[in-house]
Amino acid sequence: MATAKQSPPPRKTPSRAKKAPAALSQDSARLALDRATKSIRGLQKDVARNAWRIGRSLALVAELGLHRARGFASLEAYAAKSLDLTAGTAFLYMRVAQAFSETAVATFGAERLDRGLRYIAATPEDESPKELPTLRVRVRDDDGAVREKDFAEVTLVELRAATKAERDAARPRTKRAAEDTAALLERVNAALDAAVGPSAARAAEVRLREAGGKALVDVRGVPRAKATAAFRAVATALRDAR
Fold it and tell me: Does the pLDDT of residue 219 top 50, yes or no?
């Protein structure tokens, strides 16, 4: 498995704004939509082979807003009326077309890859879509034992169960983390109260928060005369909690 998930790096501001696609005239947009609709209907005759191309075509319709040229308020409405596609299926095709190559989608199938995306989103490891074809998935046997199985051999039922198991395992970790934070906050505030004395303790407070992927400590309401002792007490309590 890969390393633990980390917060994504801040996005860099591009030096030049990306140009938006030139707006089409109403007639041109209708013509483009009609061509896309005809093409997608033809591709639907062999969805297993053409799911990637369907997803790319739908993404282009959405990006250019072509569906509005025929009076559809949303891509979902267009897909349902013109292509007999549910919103879930339409967006599934679009997701896998964005994340994977045409060869990967044809080899593994759109639904399997989409389930794979959900699985790696649920695991604590920092896995990427390109790793899915060689990924080892944690599946549970009938006797309850967990073993790793090649992604290419995992069934959709096993993928659903594995994703649920990863999500269920993450919930206790999140709960424990919240409980640990609350206990830490209580200890640090007790140390602060002792440092500033009873009269100032009513206003003095320590809060913990996150910003930009970093854990921050806010100390407020401390009299200037007792600031040195207060900050020393807070720092000591945080150090002892490590």
Answer: yes
